[in-house]
Amino acid sequence: MPDPSSRAEDTAPTRLEAVRGDITRQSVDVIVNAANSSLLGGGGVDGAIHRAGGPEILAECRELRAGALREGLPTGDAVATTAGRLPARWVVHTVGPVYAVRTDRRPLLESAYRRSIEVSAGLGARSIAFPAVSAGVYGWPPDDSARLAVTAVRAALAAGPSSVELVRFVLFSDEMHELFAAELSRP
Ligand code: AR6
């Protein structure tokens, strides 16, 4: 007998957590990649994901570029592929903005987090691992990166019920981990 008190609207709120580690080792439904618009690979977390996941991921990215994403993936958008050999079901590739002092690119970075969650939820994913998008080669300042990521993810999850039960930020350094953990501990 299903428990009559467990209705969809009673589902527990999504858990948010921060861990220090390598995102390619995370056993989750979705690993988010901080990619570039070409989707054809790069350094940083992008390089690590393609190296660990194997050629299947790049093959699917090439197919996307030959079809629906002929112009590339716009900054702030997200798209899913296989996770290849990674311990995940999908990689969701997103493109964060390059940090710039003079123009406000925060909406694009917020959009990268939001679209990643929307695409993941569209797949029925229950767990998502995020790196600190734009915080490496793209130069986003670490403290603002943590604040914006946590705020954007909370806002996206608040938009309505979804399949997502866990969002894990996976940070490569102690400094970033501390910043994200501090941000998550704020009410
Ligand atoms: N696990 C978790 N975090 C990582 C890992 C890893 N294995 N490797 C790096 N990081 P970046 P961006 C952290 O530069 O700034 C690529 O070439 C890293 O320390 O990977 O969005 C793409 O192709 C940093 O905190 O991404 C694009 O051209 C964070 O991940 C460009 O870089 C993001 O750093 C995207 O730049």
From TrEMBL:
Residues 3-187 form the Macro domain. PROSITE patterns: MACRO (PS51154). InterPro entries: Macro_dom (IPR002589), Macro_dom-like (IPR043472). This is O-acetyl-ADP-ribose deacetylase. CDD domains: Macro_OAADPr_deacetylase. SMART domains: A1pp. It comes from the Bacteria. Gene3D superfamilies: Leucine Aminopeptidase, subunit E, domain 1. NCBIfam families: PRK00431.1-6.
